[in-house]
User: Fold this.
Amino acid sequence: MKHALVTALVAGTLATATMHSELRTTAGQSCESLASLTLPNATITLAQAVGSGSFIPPNPAGPAAAPPAPTPAFRDLPAFCRVAATLKPSSDSDIKVEVWMPTSGWNGKFQAVGNSGWAGAISYSAMADALKRGYATASIDTGHVGGTGAFALGHPEKYIDFGYRSPHEMAVLAKAIIAGHYLTAAKHSYWNGCSTGGRQGLMEAQRFPADFDGIIAGAPANPRSAVNALQLSFTQVLLKDDASFIPPAKYRLIHQAVVEACDALDGVKDDLIADPTRCHFDPRVLQCKGDEAPTCLTTAQVESARTLLSPARSRKTGEELFPGYEPGAELDLADPRAFGSKDAITRPVDHFKYVVFKDPNWDWRTFDLDRDLAKANEVDHGISNVTNPDLKKFAGNGGKLLMYHGWADGAVPPRASVNYYTSVVNTAGGLAKTGSWVRLFMVPGMHHCSGGEGPNTFDVVGALDQWVEQGTAPDQIVASHLTNGKIDRTRPLCPYPQVAEYKGTGTTDDATNFICKRR
Assistant:
């Protein structure tokens, strides 16, 4: 029974011609017995039962280093079966995968979790969150070790693994292992990711529409070439000389001025900009009238701030090539991993150095937006960029796509998600035809994937689960803001293009006093 069930599952989901050989397993469903699974292009390297609260993630520095101390994220994990494997769908592939399955209390479902940045590591914390909710879960390192783009130089197959292949291969493997362990297939399969994980989710919907019943795509770093080009273009402006650099402390100054100018545009003065697209803020109001001071911006700093809050445009035609950041994102823009450092952001530099120009000595100061973005798109050719808005096959399979993005994101411009979502809706025939399978939730005041001054804690997994299982599309998702671990504000997140509108009575810190309404 076990042999036939798992073989049938694999045969029904394998998408590559190299993965047709029969899956074999020994009898029994113990965790340890999964070590004898034989899968095409896969090697099981570990199959062990992990006791409650005993998991310690591997030390990235290597086995000889001192193991990391247990953390609360893992200390309260339930007992589970841990399976690790290596996938080699190409001759140069080396994809590390882990699959975790609850020892008891499995909810019958599978949740794959995405990566961030250049990946290069298993997303253990995200797996822990899924396991605690009763899901069998899986994660990948996308085929390389370490969070830089150096792996791509001279290794096109590894870049394909990073771009789109490894999440799909993981989905196929994990479903087979889950079925082999429980003697039944997962009744539903979900993807949950933000940033790179959000892009991975969109790629799954586009390229492999049968892999998942539901996909959560948060703040997708997409199209990847354009996001990286935008950040390099802005970096050139901010770091062209010492005068143009905005000190991190001054981002708070800008932010306070933005909130003061635009907070009340939604009819509620609550230190939160509900819809930044209505905010037309000119940093010139902060320009120093004399010498530079902590309370004002120099002329050069004003121009830098304007750049960050404006689209990246072609110098030749004036055409908008990619949206800029929104008013209200200043605190996230000040992050040292963004524009709060006098060093160029390594992620986009790596992309152009190792992927586009294939030259480890490439100098980011030579970057030309028009020329090099076109070159990046040509080189990528759909490997990591998700630009095709036609997701009808995903919808036709009954798939549900839940997107979200923080309006105060200082890494990936929020309107990138708005633009892609709008293109999907228009391609499929409008909101009336798409609301049953794709929705976008914009989150006021939220930074990149989490954090920020607005309500930024919300249950997208529960919303997607209900949508898939009960067919109930989320009309709103209640988000909370916590201070010192205590909820001090709730607010409904509304499906775009709706926004939360105050009813006019009651505290503005209570979500029940708002309705979702299209403006």
User: Anything to note?
Assistant: The first strand starts at residue 42 and ends at 50. Confidence is low (pLDDT under 50) at residues 1-28. The two ends are 56 Å apart (CA to CA).
